[in-house]
Design a protein that fits this description.
This protein is of the alpha/beta class and 396 residues long. It folds into two domains: 137 residues, Aspartate Aminotransferase, domain 1, CATH 3.90.1150.10; 246 residues, Aspartate Aminotransferase, domain 2. Helices cover 42% and strands 13% of the residues. The chain contains 14 helices and twelve strands. The strands form three sheets. Strands 2-8-7-6-5-3-4 form a seven-stranded mixed beta sheet, sandwiched between helices. Helix 3 packs across helix 11. The N and C termini lie far apart (52 Å). It binds pyridoxal-5'-phosphate.
Amino acid sequence: MSNVNKAALALGTQRSVIRELFEFGKKRIAEVGAENVFDFSIGNPSVPAPDCVNETAIRLLKEMDPVVLHGYTSAQGDADVRKKIADSIFRSFDYKISPDSLYICTGAAGGLCGCLNGLLNPGEEVVVFAPYFPEYKVFIEKAGGRMRLIPADTEHFQIDFERFEEALGSNTKAVLINSPNNPSGAVYSEETIRRLAQILEDKSKETGSPIYLISDEPYRAIAFEGVKVPWVPSYYRNTLVCYSWSKALSLPGERLGYVAVSEEMEDHDEVYAAVAGASRALGYVSAPSLFQRVCAECVDDTSDITVYETNRNILVKGLRDLGFTCVEPEGTFYMFPQTLIPDDVAFCEKAKDFNLLIVPGAGFGCPGHCRISYCVPTQRAERSLDAFAKLAAFYK
Ligand code: PLP
């Protein structure tokens, strides 16, 4: 009988709902052909990285001293890379940040783990808003904390402030937000961020210790026409931003992102050191060197995200015409309509009969909904409406 860590074993052996769907999809593709399976399960970008990525990678491989290019960088990332990112943040948000407030990490996931492990003492709480990215619970608990989940504001997918204020207490160490949001596609408005910041400021004063705001932003670059994603550190001084190029540059497999520790944070130097220390303890030092440099060169570029907006328009209209209720996403490549019956798990199971692979909302803390990842070719999104029509007809 194995004597390994039980929690780790459970995580390593449980199959996720999304992985189950993926396996099911492979089987169905073999039976009915790829064009007849509508796999909306996984959030893998469907558009290629912009030209800048390959061009820069090839140039660096040809021109840079390979010993340097493939060598370790500083633990917190190459200094020149961090300077380029800091300059980009200033250009984009008119926010001055020192390269020494940036920690280059392996995707937003690496950044989140660095922040949570750097901030949390055993048993401290992190407030999370439903619907939420399920890995948050795993990351928070591994860092010794507890997740405090606030039920969703299903009307707009902003924040239910009444429930939020009730949940804040002396044990609240941090609040973790994700906008643009996976799975709802909602973008927190400036008003939402302002109100959130005011409540955190007041509560921190009352308890005498800062409540940190961790802003998980892998989808920041994927906001649709006319939508502004507020730069959170401009509204709340105790913010840590976890950014990633996984979706912005379609590079999820290259594992690159950064943590930005707000310049005005009251205990900035200790927090930055703790994030660096936690990352060190986790082995997250010197993120992949070639792609640090590639991302820094392409920092103001994005993949062609217009396909996501086109798909959003097709699916929101198509599903509403079929009787679905859906908050219109303002960014990402996800939408989160209500299921046509309250049991979202049964609904998504039934959808498989029509070769529609969609994910139940329960796993995101928001039952009665389902997530549709529309990072697929537009033709596939269009053709899926027939399958959705059959699914809707089944419940008529
Ligand atoms: N946070 C959210 C909300 C996500 O959806 C994802 C990935 O899908 C991550 C974090 C992790 O992203 P990364 O690939 O940057 O680690």
